[in-house]
């Protein structure tokens, strides 16, 4: 599960010397080895102990620079960890790697209300930044289900998407400035706070979405938006996908730019997450036999003109016969119940095996695509569960494939099934101009399929950039590209 095999691994004594020198840089307590290291979980979703040569926790950009300079000279692989909630094995490491955790670089500076910016350390937890910005009367245009654990550095390095992309764009649109430490320890500080800065190449864009392969992000300046406390959330039921897109277009035209989210849920996922026979599911606010559902959420400032526009627009969609049934949350509890149906993926993940995808494709092709892969999956594995839901307005679907297995599978069969599932799910995307990764990135788990979404010329330029910025190949090697 690593890409570090090409990099020479030092002898035990060399690693020992390196760790001693790391301790001199960041302090004894901030280099974890042995039991202190293995007390940590490998990942947000994997409680097994973290195996690495050491975990180092620099306090700031200067210490990060010294750590990388040392590791670069020693050709020592460094894998950066934020909140380890990534979903493509981008944070995987081997027992020979040094893990660089950004957890101590979690400062959130005072919000610049007039300039609508906030500067944070890369290790600041997204939810803490959201709260600090909220306390200052503003809002960050990024929200994800992993908000309580993921970090700003992780969000930037994966160019995270989430629930408000429709309105505010992906993480790239929220970043004004970055401080990055290059593989050799050089500090590239572009803590720009202005909306406009066309002075030459916009170098920060190189690091946004590069998954820790080109540099370590240590600080960022984020763009902020007006607070939108007037929230309307509706769950909608449809009898056809065509009516879903009619309604999306209608809401986009009539909500004065306040439509924040439009999330689609096909029936199997809705039924699973509202099954009264399963513990932890949500109450179904609408009948469970509609073929397709959507959650629409509008968020407005407290002006009389914006608040309450969603219910009015929905009445029109009901009158036109596009929406078959609808419910509008009357309280925060009801709102949370509606979102729980969409965000709660744990029940689907209890299947074993279950293969998880995050794809994008044109909205107009979605229903045909879902029907096509369902037919192929049922042919390959009769009774196979296919759960589809996601950020419809962004052209982004999450797809979970869970073939029925009579008994526990051996590893070879599991890999074979995964490969077949990948072929079925990814196969049609190239022809549709879609992407094998809408928002989670490539990491290790999607690397072999990169050529379905990027041309050879693009992949070749990615390799050139990697070789130029990290000639010794120490930063997250083997992730995204070989
Ligand atoms: C419940 C749940 C819901 C999620 N929902 C969404 C969603 O809606 N949209 C979405 O896009 N993602 C989603 N994710 C995936 C994940 O939360 C995001 O990819 C997130 O941005 C990762 O942040 P992190 O701090 O956990 O990064 P990590 O997992 O620690 O790292 C991710 C990658 O970034 C690199 N990295 C981390 N920090 C830095 C840094 N400072 N400098 C350079 N490289 C770095 C790592 O090496 C790794 O390659 C979800 C995950 C979960 C578990």
Keywords:
single chain; Uridine Diphospho-n-acetylenolpyruvylglucosamine Reductase, domain 2; Uridine Diphospho-n-acetylenolpyruvylglucosamine Reductase, domain 3; Alpha-Beta Plaits; 4 domains; seven-stranded antiparallel beta sheet; five-stranded antiparallel beta sheet; disordered N terminus; binds flavin-adenine dinucleotide
Major beta sheet, specifics? 7 strands, antiparallel
Strand line-up of the largest beta sheet: 15-12-14-13-17-18-16
Strand content range:
15-25%
> In terms of per-residue confidence, which ranges show pLDDT below 50 for 5 or more consecutive residues?
1-9
What would you say about this model in short?
This protein folds into four domains: 105 residues, Uridine Diphospho-n-acetylenolpyruvylglucosamine Reductase, domain 2 (2-Layer Sandwich), CATH 3.30.43.10; 110 residues, Uridine Diphospho-n-acetylenolpyruvylglucosamine Reductase, domain 3, CATH 3.30.465; 115 residues, 2-Layer Sandwich (Alpha-Beta Plaits); 89 residues, Alpha-Beta Plaits (2-Layer Sandwich), CATH 3.30.70. The protein is built from 17 helices and 18 strands. The two termini are 13 Å apart.
């Amino acid at each position: 599960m690593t890409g570090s095999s090409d990099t020479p691994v030092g002898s035990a004594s060399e690693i020992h010397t390196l760790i001693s020198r790391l301790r001199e840089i960041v302090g004894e307590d901030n280099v974890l080895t042995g039991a202190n290291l293995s007390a940590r979980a490998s990942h947000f979703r994997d409680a097994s102990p973290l195996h690495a040569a050491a975990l180092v926790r620099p306090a700031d950009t200067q210490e990060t620079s010294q750590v990388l300079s040392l590791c670069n000279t020693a050709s020592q692989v460094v894998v950066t960890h934020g909140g380890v909630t990534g979903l493509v094995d981008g944070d995987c490491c081997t027992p020979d790697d040094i893990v660089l955790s950004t957890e101590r670089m979690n400062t959130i500076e005072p919000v610049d209300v007039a300039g609508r910016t906030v500067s944070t350390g890369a290790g600041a937890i997204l939810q803490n930044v959201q709260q600090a910005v909220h306390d200052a009367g503003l809002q960050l245009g990024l929200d994800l289900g992993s908000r309580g654990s993921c970090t700003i550095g992780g969000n930037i390095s994966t160019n995270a998407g989430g629930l408000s992309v429709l309105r505010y764009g992906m993480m790239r649109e929220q970043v004004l400035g970055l401080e990055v430490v290059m593989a050799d320890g050089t500090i590239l500080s572009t803590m720009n706070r202005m909306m406009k800065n066309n002075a030459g190449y916009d170098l920060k864009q190189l690091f946004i979405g590069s998954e820790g392969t080109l540099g370590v992000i240590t600080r960022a300046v984020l763009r902020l938006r007006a607070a939108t406390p007037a929230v309307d959330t509706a769950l909608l039921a449809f009898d056809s996908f065509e009516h879903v897109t009619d309604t999306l277009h209608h809401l986009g035209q009539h909500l004065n730019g306040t439509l924040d989210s439009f999330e689609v849920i096909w029936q199997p996922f809705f039924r699973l997450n509202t099954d009264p026979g399963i513990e932890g599911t949500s109450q179904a606010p609408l009948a469970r036999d509609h073929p397709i559902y959507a959650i629409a959420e509008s968020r407005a400032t407290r002006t009389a003109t914006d608040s309450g526009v969603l219910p009015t627009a929905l009445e029109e969609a009901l009158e036109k016969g596009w929406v078959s049934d609808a419910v509008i949350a009357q309280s925060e509890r009801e709102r949370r119940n509606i979102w729980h149906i969409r965000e709660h993926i744990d029940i689907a993940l209890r299947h074993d095996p279950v293969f998880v995808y995050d794809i994008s494709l044109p909205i107009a092709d979605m229903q045909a695509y879902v029907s096509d892969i369902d037919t192929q999956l049922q042919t390959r594995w009769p009774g196979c569960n296919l759960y589809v839901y996601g950020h419809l307005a962004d052209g982004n679907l999450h797809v979970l494939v869970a073939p029925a297995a009579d008994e526990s599978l051996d590893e070879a069969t599991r890999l074979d099934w995964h490969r077949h599932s990948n072929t079925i799910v990814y196969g049609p995307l190239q022809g549709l101009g879609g992407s094998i990764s809408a928002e989670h990135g490539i990491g290790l788990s999607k690397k072999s399929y990169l050529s379905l979404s990027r041309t050879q010329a693009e992949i070749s330029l990615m390799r050139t950039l990697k070789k130029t910025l990290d000639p010794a190949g120490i930063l997250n090697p083997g992730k995204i590209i070989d």
